[in-house]
Amino acid sequence: MKFTAGQIAGILEGEVHGNPEIAVHKLAKIEEGEEGSLTFLANPKYTSFIYTTNASITIVNKSFVPEQILKTTLIKVEDAYKSFSKLLEYYNQVKNNKVGIEEPVFKSDTATFGTDVYLGAFSYLGNNVSLGDNVKVYPNVYIGDNVKIGDNVTIFAGAKVYSETIIGDNCVVHSGVVLGADGFGFTPNDKGEFAKVPQTGNVILEDNVDVGAGTTIDRATLGSTILRKGVKLDNQIQIAHNVEIGEHTVIAAQTGIAGSTKIGKHCMIGGQVGIVGHIVIGDFVKIQAQSGIGRNVKSHEVLQGSPALNYGDYNKSYVHFKNLSKIINRIDTLEKKD
């Protein structure tokens, strides 16, 4: 797939400085640019590479003024980083714009879908499944009974969507994701054994939710496990039954959230964070990586540590943590003098 500088400038509303007919067919870092590749310059510390790059086209800010002769054709835009990101999104849309039904596919007679749908080989659609327009279901995806999926949704290879799950518009579900497996619900009986508590709820992803590879989101015991609009999850995250995550919250890899916890909107949660069940975390909360959260958290708090402390208190305390052995030795010395 090839694009000329003129075509790219049209997509980005930019200006071509150089040859508008020069074409590219791949993307590259500026320091690794080759003939036929497209790159960008946004960070000033990489400026020296623009004079040595062999990339055919480079996207730059309008403010950029070359100090040496360039081999590369420039496309000048208001914000090179944002424009390059927009181009990556456009590239992915074109690359992933699959349409049609491959064979073999199993789809129930009661399954319905809109226009421009793609069903990859060995995918499965159960009873009463509903797919919107422009839904892309890659090979080996399982979609259980009564699942409803909105428009412009992509479900990558090997994902499993259990029955009753609801997925809104513009969502992305990556490979290995499991939506709607049973929550971890067991109760001890008179014999000291653990009996399963039936998990009868579902999972709801609202619009514009991204779920990273290998992430698991459990169905509710009753009601719904809900990810509100704009939530972004990294890879290998565990979301337990009846959890609710507020709008535009982002969570990094290997975080685990126990059952029935409510997380507010616009939160930022680092990797390997552990959050206990049945607590409430407010809005705009920031939690540093590897923290352990065992209490309710007020809006706008910034936390670190396990159990987590206020971020500022943690940093002050850490000065003493790392000198703890010296402090103990000093106390021992003083006690001996007494």
UniProtKB/TrEMBL annotation:
EC number from the UniProt entry: 2.3.1.191
Membrane-crossing residue ranges in chain numbering: none
Enzyme type, top EC level: transferase
Location of the UDP-3-O-[3-hydroxymyristoyl] glucosamine N-acyltransferase non-repeat region domain: 22-89
Protein's pathway: Bacterial outer membrane biogenesis; LPS lipid A biosynthesis
The UniProt record lists the keyword Lipid biosynthesis: yes
Annotated active site: 241 (proton acceptor)
GO biological process: lipid A biosynthetic process
Gene Ontology MF terms: N-acyltransferase activity; UDP-3-O-[(3R)-3-hydroxyacyl]-glucosamine N-acyltransferase activity
Keywords associated with the record: Acyltransferase, Lipid A biosynthesis, Lipid biosynthesis, Lipid metabolism, Repeat, Transferase
Pfam families: Hexapep, Hexapep_2, LpxD
Reactions catalysed according to its record: a UDP-3-O-[(3R)-3-hydroxyacyl]-alpha-D-glucosamine + a (3R)-hydroxyacyl-[ACP] = a UDP-2-N,3-O-bis[(3R)-3-hydroxyacyl]-alpha-D-glucosamine + holo-[ACP] + H(+)
Protein's UniProt keywords contain Transcription regulation: no
GO cellular component, one term: membrane
Similarity remark: Belongs to the transferase hexapeptide repeat family. LpxD subfamily.
Record function comment: Catalyzes the N-acylation of UDP-3-O-acylglucosamine using 3-hydroxyacyl-ACP as the acyl donor. Is involved in the biosynthesis of lipid A, a phosphorylated glycolipid that anchors the lipopolysaccharide to the outer membrane of the cell.
PANTHER family per the UniProt record, alphabetical: UDP-3-O-ACYLGLUCOSAMINE N-ACYLTRANSFERASE, UDP-3-O-ACYLGLUCOSAMINE N-ACYLTRANSFERASE 1, MITOCHONDRIAL-RELATED
Quaternary structure annotation from Swiss-Prot or TrEMBL: Homotrimer.
Designated name of the protein: UDP-3-O-acylglucosamine N-acyltransferase
Species assigned in the record: Maribacter hydrothermalis
